[in-house]
Amino acid sequence: MCLILRGTVEIFxxxxxxxxxxxxxxxxxxxxHISSTATAVALKEPMVSTMKRLTLxxxxxxxxxxxxxxxxxxxxxxxSPRQGKMDTEVMNMLESKLSKVEKDMNNNRLIVQQIKAxxxxxxxxxxxxxxxxxxxxxxxxxxxxPGEIVQMNQAVVEKPMPxxxxxxxxxxxxxxxxxxxxxxxxxxxxxxxxxxxINIHNLFSSLAFDNPNGGAWTQGWKVSYPKDRWTADKKLKxxxxxxxxxxxxxxxxxxxxxxxxTKHILxxxxxxxxxxxxxxxxxxxxxxxxxxxxEIDDSLRERVKKLxxxxxxxxxxxxxxxxxxxxxxxxxxxxxLIEGHQWLNSTLGYVPKSGWSIDPFGYSSTMAYLLKRSxxxxxxxxxxxxxxxxxxxKNTELEFMWRQHWDPKGSTDMYTHMMPFYSYDVPHTCGPxxxxxxxxxxxxxxxxxxxxxxxxxPKAITSLNVAERARTILDQWKKKxxxxxxxxxLVPLGDDFRYQxxxxxxxxxxxxxxxxxxxxENPELGAQGKFGTLSDYxxxxxxxxxxxxxxxxxxxxxxxxxxxxxADRDDHYWSGYYTSRPLQKNxxxxxxxxxxxxxxxxxxxxxxxxxxxxxxFPSRLMAxxxxxxxxxxxxxxxxxxxxxxxxxHVVEDYGKRMLDGLHEAxxxxxxxxxxxxxxxxxxxxxxxSDGPEYGHDxxxxxxxxxxEKPVLRVKDMLVSSGGAPVxxxxxxxxxxxxxxxxxxDWPYVKVTGPDGVSLHSQVEPLWPVEKGPDGGLILGVYSVxxxxxxxxxxxxxxxxxxxxxxxxxxxxxxxxxxxxxxSPAVDEKSPVFQIETKSEDADFTLETKFxxxxxxxxxxxxxxxxxxxxxVTHKSELEFIQYGTRAHKDKxxxxxxxxxxxxxxxxxxxxxxxxxxxxxxxxxxTIFTAYIQHTVRLHNSPGTDGSSLDISNxxxxxxxxxxxxxxxxxxxxxxxxxxxxxxxxxxxxxxRKYYSKLTLQGNVYPMPTMAYLQDESSRVSVLSSQSxxxxxxxxxxxxxxxxxxxxxxxxxxxxxGVLDNRPTPSRYRLLFxxxxxxxxxxxxxxxxxxxxxQQSSLALIHPMFVMPHAGRKSGAQxxxxxxxxxxxxxxxxxxxxxxxxxxxLLLHSSVTAELDHIPRESSLLLVRHLPSDCSFPAASLTxxxxxxxxxxxxxxxxxxxxRSTITSLTMTSDLAELKxxxxxxxxxxxxxxxxxxxx
Length: 1239
Prior knowledge:
Blueprint: H1 2-15, H2 18-42, H3 47-78, H4 88-123, E1 149-152, E2 155-158, H5 183-191, E3 198-199, H6 200-206, E4 236-245, H7 254-275, E5 281-283, H8 286-295, H9 298-309, E6 313-315, H10 330-347, E7 354-357, H11 365-372, E8 378-381, H12 386-394, E9 399-403, E10 414-418, H13 434-437, H14 466-481, E11 488-496, H15 502-521, E12 527-531, H16 534-544, E13 558-560, H17 582-611, H18 619-636, H19 648-677, E14 711-712, E15 724-730, E16 736-744, E17 749-752, E18 758-759, E19 761-764, E20 782-790, E21 794-802, E22 811-813, E23 815-819, E24 834-838, E25 844-847, E26 851-855, E27 862-867, E28 872-883, E29 904-905, E30 913-918, E31 922-928, E32 932-939, E33 949-955, E34 963-971, E35 979-984, E36 988-993, H20 999-1002, E37 1005-1007, E38 1010-1014, E39 1018-1024, E40 1028-1031, E41 1037-1045, E42 1064-1074, H21 1091-1101, E43 1105-1108, E44 1126-1128, E45 1138-1147, E46 1159-1169, E47 1189-1190, E48 1201-1207, E49 1214-1218, E50 1224-1225, E51 1231-1238
Parallel strand pairs: 3-13, 4-11, 4-12, 5-6, 7-8, 8-10, 9-13, 14-16, 19-22, 23-24
Antiparallel strand pairs: 1-2, 9-10, 15-21, 15-43, 16-20, 17-18, 17-21, 19-20, 21-44, 23-30, 25-26, 26-27, 27-28, 28-29, 28-34, 30-31, 31-32, 32-33, 33-42, 34-41, 35-36, 35-38, 37-40, 38-39, 39-42, 40-41, 45-46, 46-51, 47-50, 48-49, 48-51
Helix pairs in contact: 1-3, 1-4, 2-3, 2-4, 10-18, 14-15, 17-18, 17-19, 18-19
């Protein structure tokens, strides 16, 4: 019967007779009603009565179908033949209803067969087997489609459908107590407190942060010095450092800057330095230098190497860029440093000695740590709050040993020089009076288009004026020297993109050479000057203080803390850039995750290819992709890249480069996953043009579009097929159990794991994100969620099988509730999901095994969270906030945050729609406001995702004017003094405190990954997937900024506002923790995330890869791939506290074409020890804890470790050969770097 009905529908569809289709829809409804009624009656009535009713039913059905076909024939004859397509939605509804009819008819048929069997047994007690055939189930090779018949024993019987099964209840085991941190680590945490002489946190408490006018040195005072301080026997040593600062993107793109400015600088310095061995020059950005190097000939390369050997040319820091230190994650900061250092080492054999960071907008102690562990002994910084500079200068403490605030012994001490004045340009580097210093920038001579803003032009040095000119600038040099402890003064001579031609080199070198000569000829002036580099300056200080490099010079203080937030004048805090261009900040973190994951899996895939001597693995091509991805991420770490402070077209360029790098990294992950799962790896076949066999976990059409998940095609599969494969990859070194999602084109599925066991799945509807509350259901695409269980570094295959409705009792269809009847979306219907519309204002809850969240029925926003394990309810009232900008004088821009007052509520009325989706594996609430689509989700998972609330937003503030938006989470944490903690670069937590004297904008800090409030008994953490600004402006509340749209420039050189906003995703986790032991000190200087917080943050930043089959076959000659169910890349997972930071494949030098992008048989293994707060439990973690030990030879499976060497972080120096099989003790907070040879 159903086959006839389906055929009828298809005929109607070809005739495009909508009227018949509507009639037919009504007919099916009637048929379904009759069938359901008959089923119910048949189960209750006596047997004879049931037979009569069924006979009548089938007769009625036959009559109706006959009449229907006659009507169709008449309609066809009356109409002209027309070809067309029926509306998809109507067909879907008819298909759904037919499926229901089929199901009930099959039930009826089974009942009829049972009745026949009973009748036969009554009428034929002897049991004539030939009269009644029992139902037959076909074997595995005889599987037929529903409704078909099978032959057996010469008799024809209809194959029965299985009875519909009731959904099996989904249950989750209670969280175990979890692992406990070792006693040694807990002891270390309790004693982790810096003993530094200067504590920045204390300095913030004591300083007034006022800004009195200091005269010529506006932010300082009138500087003087005793006339006899320097004599002919005790001379002041002046180190003049010619340098240039080349931004890899800001006003112009990276490429345009190179072609129009940077290339001219690098072309000019070599012949000038060759003129005189006393001339010196310093350069920093390797992204530019490596490009220039690739274009010059061998002769010029040798000349450059000679200048380096002579000490005339220095490359400072040697990173790919001069990295931002507020928004950048420490992985990316280190990776761009490795990229630059490895290029220098393999190409020039050069190792940088000194750090030079003059332009980032505030400084993190994380960078000092990374340089220290990269074998640097000294570094320089510039952009620090003017009040802090003034205080340190007054006390001659501008040079100090920068110590990590968790280091009680000083093992991390880094000799740091802080420049004292407003800027790093020539007017602000020779001394405290910029009007005088500008007169000695000889590029600004009257014949030049560049002039001094103080309207006093420089004068070329001649024999007639050299005495006056030399004494004038010497006075500035001596005044500057009084701010430091030694008789050596550093005088940088440069600025952005300086020395673009031979002319400027000539002007600066020749005029200063005359001044130096005059000083030498007049020793009574007590000074001698020379051209030098940064390392020359530090060497002179070490020599004068008789200190071995790396040790502490005499009387130098130690200092702990960071230098955020930066203000250059008045209340102009550079705290806006923490949030500017959040879409690109999001893309940065996504690229970082994909790059790290690709690095690890490529290194291990390459090792297996070497071991099996495989020629079919595309090593060189993969290495080229990897290098492109590395350099895209490295370039964006530039302090005008990730900061969001470049012009629109430059941001566009960064975005395109990152998107290309993201595609390359994803391709590596997809290809290596398939390669590793191949049972016979010789059958693996890489085809660049065909795309990967397994799709990317998500795609982006452009750099400024929202990510989209690919759709796994199961609809056209046979129910009896083997299922559509999905590959999961866990790039973390610890086991993970968490809910993952795959999009399919069919709702009724069965998910099986690598062991073949069926898993519970939850099917949810999808809506178009870009249409907000007005978007109807996406038809034919569904989100299928299931709990995946993967050990550390595992590549695992799951299968998604097509089922019919109700066929799999582990397949759960979500329920949808829509609140707010005024929304046009409430009228939508679905043949799959039950959608209920309500107009209630009562609060409602979502609940899992572990958490219960209460939401406002009016606003849909979170109100409280209850931990069901201990019954503690945590206040968690969430609101959205907004700021405008000042009405007068300076206004907010890309850099500055200058609000128009306290935060105001962003939303005052009820949202246009509250959408609730519930299911056994998880439930969520989505609300739609004017600018924010906000979702809170609870995962009913035994993993870390089940211990926290998942928050995701789509923020779109286009169309607004001077608007900054964020969220404020009100908690019941008692931080009465408003102390809280935010992270520095995802590496460490820094203590913060609200001070009204700093103004509102001065109390905003960077939050790359997390922030938390805590008291003696509890902690509330906000974990973030991307960087943004954070504050604690109200007691017990955390503010997190989302986006900012600003209509004007803030006068810091960009020359535009921020108006290129796009719909922007962001994701957070809220973690509520109760201490199992109360603590006395609730605001220690050194604080650490809990073990659960550490692992939850890693899981958020590094989600599992979910790669659906894309349809292509990667076997040789297009043969079907024979993939294993699972590949384990580790012998055993690492302990909870040990984070596999990277396994970076090393490449041969690209100097020769033969070795270009050829992998070496070595990788850089980076493992970090993550200490944790021991007063919190670690429920839901399945990893085990250790004592900070790691054995490189015992980490990776199926590869042989031939050699391992402990090195500096960037491999510029080998520290110790490691005997194979030897475990290394990694102290808490430290990163272990080991160069390993794998095969």
